Amino acid sequence: PVRISIQVASRGGPAMKTLIRNEFSKLKRDRTPWFPLILALLPVVTGTAACIIGGKGNAEEMIFFVNNQFVMFFPMAVFILAGSLVCREWRDGTCLVWMSYGIAKSQIILAKMFVGVALTTAIAAAEFGALGLLCAFLPHGLATWVAFAPGFALEALSIIVVGTCAGTLVASLSRSTVAVSALGIAYGFVSCLFIGTAWGCLMPGCFAYRIAMACLDPSTYYDAPMEATVAGAAASAIWCTALFLAAMLVFQRQRGVEE
C-alpha cells in the first residue's frame, strides 16, 4: 500500500516540502531508484581498478580515465533515476491522491525533479571526493584534483540538469520503466558520442566534457575557443529550457492514472 502524508496545503511552500519529504521516504521502501545511483559510482570503481592493474602513477592520466567513464555512465544514471521517480507515480497511483488534496501537477513534477537533482548532485560530489582520495596518493595529485574541480562542477551540473529534464520527459510520455531504462542507456552513449567533433559543443554533455578536460589540458579544447564557448553556452541553455518546459507540459497534460 502507498503511504503518504495528507496534511498538506493546497498551494505554496508547505505542499512542496511535503511532496519532497514524501519522495525521500519512498526511497526507503522502493529500491528501484538505487540501481542508477549504483551505476553512477562505476567510474570511480573502474578508475581505481585501472590504476591498480595498469599502474597509472600520474594524477592527470587517472582523472582523464575516470572522467571518460563518468561522462558515459553518469548521464545514464541521472536519466534513469529521474524517469523512475516519475514512473513510480503512475505505477503506485499516487498522482490522483495528491491532486485530491489540491496539489497541482506542476508541484508534483517539480518535487520529483528536485529530489532527482539532489540525489545525483550528492552522488557527483561523492565521486569527486573519492577521486580526490585517489589523487592524494599520487605525486602532485591534490593540486591536479583542485585544478580539475571547476570543470568537473560545470560538467556535473550540465549532465544533471539536462539528464533530469530528459528523463522526466521520457517517463511522462511512456510511463514505462523499461522504456526509460533502455533510452537512458542509449542516452549515455549518445551524450558522449560527438565529443571529438567540432560541432559537439552544441551537445551539452560533449561541451561540458571539453570544458572539464580543458581545466587540465587547454589543448583539448576547441580550435575556435571563443566561438565554441558562445555556441556551447547558448545551446546548453536552449536544451535545458526546452526539455524542462516540455517535461512540465507533457506531465501536466497527461490523463489521470485511473484512465
Helix and strand pattern: HHHHHHHHHH
Mean pLDDT: 82
Helix share bin = over 70%
Main beta sheet: strand number and arrangement?
none
Number of E-state strands = 0
The CA-CA distance between the termini, in Å, is: 20 Å
Q: What Rg is obtained from the alpha carbons, in whole angstroms?
A: 20 Å
> How large a portion of the residues is in β-strands, by DSSP E?
under 5%
What is the SS-derived class?
mainly alpha
Low-pLDDT regions: 1-10
How does the overall form come out from the CA principal axes? globular
Q: How many helical stretches?
A: 10
Give an overview in words:
This protein has 259 residues and is mainly alpha-helical. 75% of the residues lie in helices and 0% in strands. The chain contains ten helices and no strands. Helix 4 runs antiparallel to helix 6, helix 7 packs across helix 8 and helix 7 packs antiparallel against helix 9. The N terminus is likely disordered.
